[in-house]
Each structure stands twice: as structure tokens, then as C-alpha cells.
Amino acid sequence: MIYVIGIGPGGFDEITPRAFEIMKSCDVIAGYTVYVELIKKYFPEKIFYISGMRAERERCLMALKFSREHNYDVALISSGDAGVYGMAGLMLELADDEEVKIIPGITAANSCAAVLGAPLMNDYVIISLSDLLTEWDVIEKRLICACEGDFVICIYNPASNHRPEHFKRACEIIRRYKPDTTPAGYVRNIGREDEEAKVTTLGEIINCNIDMLCTVIIGNSQSCILNGKFITKRGYNNILPS
Amino acid sequence: MIYVIGIGPGGFDEITPRAFEIMKSCDVIAGYTVYVELIKKYFPEKIFYISGMRAERERCLMALKFSREHNYDVALISSGDAGVYGMAGLMLELADDEEVKIIPGITAANSCAAVLGAPLMNDYVIISLSDLLTEWDVIEKRLICACEGDFVICIYNPASNHRPEHFKRACEIIRRYKPDTTPAGYVRNIGREDEEAKVTTLGEIINCNIDMLCTVIIGNSQSCILNGKFITKRGYNNILPS
């Protein structure tokens, strides 16, 4: 049996008891180096299978091998939610008749939003700027549609060493539709010791140091900054009885 | 001090230890009747403040009163994530100089996706069909933009007794852009004992009994159904080295 598990933003206290108990019950814990390091100390007895970035396919095939050849239960872990740009989809694609269960975790959009305030109270999109698996034209089209629909926009993978300009390019597109005063914010290293956050505006965030460790949220027409918090109004204050 | 806490989909084992410890440390737990009932038995010593639907504003004002007048620590709870159509935004709007901290939880999009397979592996939108606080014209425009951007669409509040036709109307809009064979699915009562899920297609889901207890996901051009699971491909299988 293979479990694909989201371990949340990074802190041990944000792993659900459901995810924890399943990891405890498994024989093997497999995942990207950084994530396995985060949880290793809680499970000293396990077999760990660690692999690097871009080794996702090989990691899934190893999980299958452990399960099929050794009859091991395998926990394949992702940070955040394994079903959001994580390992869940690929594992299900490769699993064939092997049983696979997905265990959700808190994804970066939600943990980032909680640090900044409440920017996701209204309809929102999640867009990854990584063009490793999606063509840039598609990403650009999606940014435009997100603006036209007045969605709050949450950006995953805003930049990397190989594509430092992606985030600025995305901002330039968004600025054609949303005013520079639109609230925006980012969190770097969410849930880790060196977490760092900033609430600012669309006009300013383009000059911030946004790297691959950041999650970014850009507001919609209902967003505001109040006492340093980034909030998107849902409307309660206006139309519900007081 | 006021904490606005997301308790996840409903099962006790999907409340993060962080959320649990904060509830344990608070004097008062406040929330919508159903959610407070879910967690009441774990905290027999607390003061509970329970109120009904649409009493959100009054609930926030009571939390403020408890904190200001009695110096109580208050846990204001929402199901799922409090920052997604939950209590976080309104509480921050009303808080003024009172300290408010948002504690994230697993939102319905992620718990629904995990039950259905891995439909959110590619860029997606979350849209609520409730027109209580957003005009229907805006909702319709957002559905169209979501289709034009080839996003996976996750629908919250698909219907209620007051608006049983909303879901069908939304499907009719989406069907103008996406083929009837597009994978789709829903989960009713996620994480509860009577959880019920179905993987189907856009053409069929319009005839399913979708009510206010359901979360719905409709795929994009990269979605497929494989061994009964709803998966949106991210591309790994095609372009990463095997």
C-alpha cells in the first residue's frame, strides 16, 4: 500500500494526526531530501528513501517497488499538500493496480494567507510560474484570465535560479489589469524558523527579492490593507445584519 | 487575544496539533453550532459560544467582547480553513487594535481532491456559487474566465435550499467551454462518517444531487480518469527523464 502524504508548511505541529499516524505505521518514508530531513527525527526506526529535485518519477517507481517486491507500506511525502503540484498525480498515474491513498495537508496558499492576514476570503486562483511542465504562453494566458475575472491570485514557484525573471514578467502582465495600489504580499520559508513576510502593494512587490522559497498573493478589487494586514473583503460588513 | 482557527474537513485527526494546542490554551471557543459540536467533547472545561448561520458579525463582536472585557483568550473556529470564505477576514476587519492571529487548516478543495484522486495538480481556481455576498454576474464572469484560462475549477457552496439552481446554471456556463467528457467529481460531507464521493464527467455531474454539503471539482484539458481516480496531469510523465 502506498500513501501520498502532505506534511503541511514545514512545522511539525502542522502535520495532521492522520498524516502522522500513517507515517508511523509505514515501513518506508520516501521523499525529496529537505522534506524527509524535516520529519526524520520523529521516526528513527524507518527505512528512508531520499531523492533530489526532478527525481519525482524515479521516487514513485521506487515506492511501487518497495510495495510490490517487499510488501512494504510506503509513505511518499510532499511539503504542503501532495495534491497541489506535489507527488499525488504522478503516483496515481504510475500505480496501475497498486492501491494508493492521498492524505491531504495544508497547502502554501493557505499557510501564506494566514501569515499575511485574510487575502483569500474571496474567489482565488493558484498559478505556478514554473515553465518546466507548463508552457509560458499558457501561464501568461492564465494570469490574464485571472485578472479579467478579478480573482485574488496566489503564485507558487514565483522564480528560481534558472528563471529569475518570471516573477517580474508575471507582475508586468498583472499591472496591465490591476492598479499598482492593489495589496500584495509574500511569505518566504513559511512555517520554518527563518520565516519572513511582507505586506505591500503590486507596484512595490515587483522590486522585492522574490525567490523560489516564496509564496506570493496579489489581491483583487475587494482587497485592502488594514492595520498592516492584507484582507480581501467578502462583504459581510456591508450587507449582513449588524 | 483572538485566534481564528481552521479545524479542517471535520475529522478530529485532521486538526493540526498547532490548532489543537491553541484551542486547549484558550478560555472561550466560539463558532457556528455544527463546528463547535464537532470539537466540544475534547475540551469539556471551556466556555462555548455558539451561534447560527449568518451570525458571523455578531460572533466576531462577541469574541472581541470576551477578549476586551474579560481578558479571555478566544478561539474562533471555522471548518476547513478560516481564511477561505471563513471568519478570518471579518474578524480582522472588526478587530481594530485587538491582536488577531490566523491559524490555517486544510480547506475543502484539498480534502475533496484527495478523496477524488489528484485533480488539483495543475493551476486551479476556487469559486463560491453563493450570491449572498457576491453578485451572480460576477460569479458568472469568473466561471467564464476560469474556463478561458483552462483552469481546473473547484466549486464551494454549489447550492442551497434558497438557490437550488445555481449549480446547474454554473454547469451550463462551463459546458459552453469544456467538453461534456471533462472529468468531474464531488464529495459530500468530507471527512465525516457519512462521506460520499463520485468521480464522473461534466456532462453527468449536472444530473447528480449536488447540495450545500458538497464540494465539486471540474477538470481542465489535462484531466483524465484512471482506475476510477480523477487526475490532472502535470506533465512529469511526458518530459522528465525516466
Short synopsis of the structure:
The structure is a homodimer of 242-residue chains. Chain A has nine helices and 13 strands.
Write up what this structure looks like.
Two copies of one chain form a homodimer. By secondary structure, the first copy, chain A, is of the alpha/beta class. Helix content of chain A is 33%, strand content 25%. Chain A contains nine helices and 13 strands. The first copy, chain A, has helices at residues 17-25, 33-40, 56-70, 88-95, 108-116, 136-148, 166-175, 202-205, 236-239; strands at residues 2-6, 28-32, 47-51, 74-78, 100-103, 117-118, 124-128, 152-156, 183-188, 196-201, 214-218, 223-226, 229-232. In chain A, strands 3-2-4-1-5 form a five-stranded parallel beta sheet, with helices on both faces. In chain A, strand 7 (124-128), helix 6 and strand 8 form a beta-alpha-beta unit. The longest helix of chain A has 15 residues, at 56-70. The termini of chain A are far apart. At the A-B interface, helix 1, helix 3, helix 4, strand 5 and helix 5 of A face helix 1, helix 3, helix 4, strand 5 and helix 5 of B.
Radius of gyration of chain A: 19 Å
Order of helices and strands of chain A: EHEHEHEHEHEEHEHEEHEEEH
Query: How would you classify the quaternary structure?
Result: homodimer
The end-to-end span of chain A amounts to: 52 Å
Structural class computed from helices and strand pairing of chain A: alpha/beta
> Beta-strand percentage of chain A?
25-35%
Largest sheet of chain A: 5 strands, parallel
Which stretches of chain A are low in confidence, meaning pLDDT under 50 for 5 or more residues running? none
Please tally the helical runs of chain A, counting DSSP H or I stretches of 4 or more residues: 9
Amount of helix of chain A: 25-40%
**Using DSSP, what is the number of strands of chain A?**
13
Shape of chain A: elongated
Largest interchain contact: A-B, 84 and 84 residues
Main sheet: strand order of chain A = 3-2-4-1-5
How would you state the average pLDDT of chain A, rounded? Answer: 93
